[in-house]
Amino acid sequence: MLGCERSTEADSGPKQGGGAEVKPAPKASKEPIRSLPQVDTSSLDDFSEAIWIDMVNELLSPCGEPVSVARCISEARACKKCVPAARYVARLVDEGYSRDEIRDVFRVRYGDDTKVTGITAGDSPLRGSPMAPVTLYEFSDFQCPHCKMAAPMLKKVVEESDGKVKLVFKQYPLPGHPRAREAAKATVAAQKQGKFWEMHDLLFENQDSLQTANFDDYAKKIGLDLKRFQADMASKETEKKIEADIAEGHKAGVDSTPSVYVNDRRFIFSPDQLAPYVREELDQ
Predict the structure, then answer these.
(1) Which helix (DSSP H) or strand (DSSP E) does residue 127 occupy?
(2) Radius of gyration of the chain from its Cα atoms, rounded to whole angstroms
(3) What does the angle CA 3 – CA 219 – CA 148 come to, to the nearest 5 degrees?
(4) For residue range 179-226, what is the model confidence (pLDDT) as tens digits?
(5) DSSP secondary structure letter of residue 188
(6) Is the CB of residue 189 less than 8 Å from the CB of residue 181?
(7) Rounded to two decimals, what is the model's pTM?
(8) What is the number of other CB atoms lying within 10 angstroms of the CB of residue 23?
């Protein structure tokens, strides 16, 4: 995903991705499985379909069984992730990903070594139903132009999910953005009065005007108690909240904004690919 990068490397935390390779399914005497009725490959030409056949017969079941994705489906194994995984591979092939690229992104989504731990919803701002089965975690910076572009896409995915997707917002002001931390404080202060998303949207709409002097005007515009807003912006509790989010980001390997995680996996594509990715998650 394109984003605003951290300006330092010493504290960037562990990175997700890279390292171990996807293990292919064990060699078998059986012929490759060439058709899976549960997966629509009608958009693939003969060359692309051949790549898809190779990949679903090579890549292992996402549930850790020593069988290929294709055999997991054809033998009606218990793993509910195999059909969505095969559809995921078909989509990647259709979008022009190479075999090596497919192996890499498949591992990020399904590999045991790429699960992300330590991100919690806690008292972070939430958009959508708290009971939604799919959780999007977004680490964002209000001065980052890529975050501004991603915000409406994330909102749309939640709104069109019929209550099945929720978005949890995490503060991640980058050191190279001098106005980002004060903007983050303004949204934390607004959250204390139940107006986080209103301030969130207003700051992105006015991304070129994030001077501290403007925050009082924004607070008035969305109907906040100004004295309380000012006190909360200046409080140590607000600073601690931001630092706690940054610490979670470090642990998860955040190195740029926006960084989006879908459940326990890092989303490594552009925001416009989030909707089909989430649909695959909901198929499981």
Answers:
(1) strand 126-127
(2) 21
(3) 15
(4) 999 999 999 999 999 999 999 999 999 999 999 999 999 999 999 999
(5) H
(6) no
(7) 0.88
(8) 13
Does residue 2 contact residue 169 with C-beta atoms inside 8 Å?
no
Angle between helices 145-159 and 274-282 (to 10 degrees): 40
Neighbours of 46 (CB within 10 A): 6
DSSP summary character for residue 158: H
- Amino acid code (one letter) for 264: D
Structure tokens at 111: 């590999």
At position 168, the amino acid (one-letter code) is: V
Q: Are 245 and 170 in contact (CB under 8 A)?
A: yes
> Closest by alpha carbon to 212, among 221, 203, 222?
203
Check residue 3 and give its pLDDT.
Answer: 76
Tokens of 133: 């089965």
Percent pLDDT > 90 in the chain is: 86
State how far the Cα of 258 lies from the Cα of 138, in Å rounded to an integer: 7
Instruction: Answer whether 94's CB lies under 8 Å from 48's CB.
Output: yes
Q: In this structure, which amino acid lies at residue 113?
A: D
Q: Alpha carbon 280 to chain centroid distance?
A: 14
Domains and CATH numbers, the chain: 4-8+118-277 (3.40.30.10), 17-115 (1.10.8)
CA-to-CA distance for 246 and 252, rounded, in angstroms? 10
Task: Identify which of 172, 195, 192, 171 has the alpha carbon closest to the alpha carbon of residue 235.
Answer: 192
- Let me know: does 118 contact 149? Beta carbons within 8 Å: no
Burial of 251 (0-12, 13-18, 19+ CB in 10 A): middle
Residue identified by tokens 């926006």 is 258
Single-letter amino acid code for the residue at 41: T
